[in-house]
Every structure is written in structure tokens, then in C-alpha cells.
Design goal:
CATH architecture: Orthogonal Bundle
Largest sheet: 3 strands, antiparallel
Strand order of the largest sheet: 1-3-2
Structural class: alpha+beta
Shape: globular
Number of strands: 3
CATH superfamily: Winged helix-like DNA-binding domain superfamily/Winged helix DNA-binding domain
Order of helices and strands: HHEHHEEHHHH
Number of helices: 8
CATH class: Mainly Alpha
CATH topology: Arc Repressor Mutant, subunit A
Helix content: 55-70%
Number of domains: 1
């Protein structure tokens, strides 16, 4: 449990977690939404995945990440607390606005591949 808190102690990972609370995303979508590099997004996703906080599933050539159902089942109070807190704080609200615009534009892995 201590290692999970250490992983959650990084704002970039919390921002990723918050986005995943609203929609499954692949690394290229997270990269776009957070304005970060693919390697940086992948590094943070790897740490979240290693701790069992998120899981990934292969969809075509991309891996789509989601909050691990086991994590939500094992830590419902922590999950609820994080979600409620993030719904009130500025960086996470801005990320949600970006996600809404992303969805409206019908962006996807296919349209983001450069």
C-alpha cells in the first residue's frame, strides 16, 4: 500500500488517473491531453500499472488504459476520495475541459498518429 501512495504522490500520475476515471484512453490520447511526450506518458502509465492502479487492454495496435477494477474494488474509499477531490481542483478541471473538447472533435488514436 505504501508504494501505491508513492505512485499517487505525483501530479502527472494523478492527472492521468483523473482522466481515466472518465474514459479509457491510449498513450497517444493522454500525451495529447496533457501536452506531454509519449515517453513521459508511458513512464507514468507504467508506474500506475505496476502498482495495479490501472490496467491496459490491447485494441487494434494500441493499448487502452482504464482504472483497474481490482483497485476500485479493493480501495473504494480511496477511489471516491480522489475523484471527489479532483472534481474540485483547477488542473483536473482543465484536463476535463480538454477531454470534453477532444471527444467533441472526435479525436482518437487514428487521428492523432503523426
Amino acid at each position: 500500500m505504501d508504494s501505491q501512495f508513492k505512485v499517487l504522490g505525483d501530479q502527472n500520475r494523478l492527472r492521468i488517473l483523473h482522466l481515466l476515471m472518465h474514459r479509457d484512453l491510449c498513450v497517444c490520447e493522454i500525451e495529447e491531453l496533457l501536452g506531454t511526450t509519449q515517453s513521459n506518458a508511458s513512464r507514468h502509465l507504467g508506474k500506475l500499472r505496476q502498482e495495479g492502479i490501472i490496467s491496459g487492454r490491447k485494441k487494434a495496435q494500441w493499448v487502452h488504459y482504464e482504472i483497474s477494477p481490482e483497485f476500485m474494488k479493493s480501495h473504494p474509499l480511496l477511489y471516491r476520495y480522489l475523484k471527489e477531490r479532483m472534481e474540485k481542483e483547477d488542473p483536473y478541471l482543465k484536463d476535463l475541459t480538454a477531454l470534453e473538447r477532444f471527444i467533441e472533435k472526435q479525436e482518437s488514436c487514428n487521428t492523432l498518429v503523426r
